[in-house]
Structures are given as structure tokens and as C-alpha cells.
Write a structure and sequence with these properties.
Blueprint (H helix, E strand, L loop, with lengths): L22 E7 L14 E9 L4 E5 L11 E3 L13 E6 L7 E10 L12 E6 L5 E6 L8 E10 L2 E5 L5 H29 L6
Antiparallel strand pairs: 1-5, 1-7, 2-3, 2-6, 4-5, 6-9, 7-8, 9-10
């Protein structure tokens, strides 16, 4: 089901009307390059980094690892063109199914090409409720500085449930998440490049 940019998304809801954080969607969108002959199109990736109470990384969900161990976090697949009418990449998080040791979730956008995210046409990201499409976060990524990775939002588990924040509450954790996300993507790209090489029958030196 596509997540629209209208309807309940723009509604001004009272605090008691806002949906409870249960099933969350991270949606990432960008537009293809205007230059049709560009052999290296811009490519963004959506990632989700899970932390435990000790602030240790439990798992990273990304295009090369699209499903968490117990299936509570699912990446819908890698896009390399930004050609979708709606979201190009999505991550679904079913909070009630998460392992008990996961206490923090960071949603990260990364540039697979290493170019600043702000240079990617139409780049935007939202964090929404799966059922109602209500958006807790909606960011135009073209307004960023020169970042090649960016933490869009943080979900934190407390005694009553989950809460969402876009504030940089833990700089060290955010930096660790971005570094780990980038390392995971590089490993994925390396493995994929060797798969393509083998597919065309070329032996790497």
C-alpha cells in the first residue's frame, strides 16, 4: 500500500488522537537524475540499526540484510534508480514483535555513491504509522548540509511503550549507527559486485 503525501498525513491531531507506536514504516524517496546518460545515478539506501540496553548494536537491516532474525523488521528491497512514484525503499518495523533486548532503533539514510545526500534530486524521508499513514517525521533531505549518512529519527523503548524523537540525544550512538550502517552497505556492495562479475563469467584478479 503506497504511503501518500496527503490526507491524514497533514492533519493536526490532538495528542490523544495520534496513533500509538506499534507498526512503523520508514519511507525513502528520490528522483532519477535529469541526465539520462548518467552512468552512475545517485543511489540512496534506507537502513535500520537496532541497539540493546547497553547501547551495543544488535542488528542492522539494510538492502543486503532485508529481514531481522525474527522477522520483526523488514526491508522491502533495494532501489538503485529512484524511479518509483511513491517510496523507493521502505522498512517496516513491528514494534510489539521486537526482541525484548532491543531498546533503541535508529533510522538511517545513506548515500551509496558517497555523494552528499542533499545533491540527490527530490530526496525525502518519512516515518509513518502503517495503519493510518500518519507521519511522525517528514524530512526534505535536500536541505541537509554535506552529510553522506543521516539519522532521520530514533525510537526508544520506555516503561509505557515507545517514543519517537528527531533530536540528537546521544551523539556517540548516532555516530556509531551511521558508521556501522556505512560499513554494512560497503560490504553489501562489495559482495554484489563480485556476484555480477561471476554472473558474466569474469574472474576477479
Amino acid at each position: 500500500m503506497p504511503i501518500s503525501n496527503s490526507g491524514i498525513t497533514g492533519a493536526l491531531l490532538q495528542e490523544h488522537e495520534k496513533p500509538e507506536l506499534k507498526e512503523v514504516v520508514m519511507g525513502l524517496h528520490w528522483d532519477p537524475s535529469e541526465d539520462d546518460v548518467n552512468v552512475h545515478p545517485e543511489n540512496l539506501d534506507a537502513l535500520c540499526v537496532l541497539f540493546d540496553q547497553e547501547q551495543q548494536i544488535v542488528e542492522i537491516i539494510h538492502p543486503g540484510n532485508p529481514r531481522s532474525a525474527n522477522g520483526s523488521v523488514v526491508h522491502t528491497g533495494d532501489s538503485r534508480t529512484g524511479a518509483s512514484k511513491w517510496d523507493d525503499e521502505r522498512i517496516f518495523v513491528f514494534l510489539e514483535a521486537l526482541p525484548a533486548d532491543v531498546t533503541t532503533i535508529l533510522f538511517v539514510v545513506a548515500s551509496a555513491t558517497g555523494n552528499p545526500i542533499r545533491n540527490v534530486r527530490g530526496a525525502s524521508c518519512h516515518i509513518s504509522d502503517h495503519a493510518t499513514e500518519y507521519q511522525w517525521v517528514n524530512i526534505e533531505l535536500t536541505t541537509l548540509d554535506t552529510q553522506t549518512t543521516y539519522c532521520v529519527a530514533t525510537l526508544s523503548r520506555n516503561l509505557t511503550g515507545w517514543e519517537i524523537s528527531t533530536a540528537e540525544q546521544n551523539i556517540n550512538r548516532e555516530h556509531e549507527a551511521q558508521s556501522a550502517a556505512l560499513a554494512a552497505l560497503r560490504q553489501f556492495e562489495f559482495a554484489r559486485s563480485h556476484e555480477l562479475i561471476r554472473a558474466v563469467g569474469i574472474k576477479p584478479e
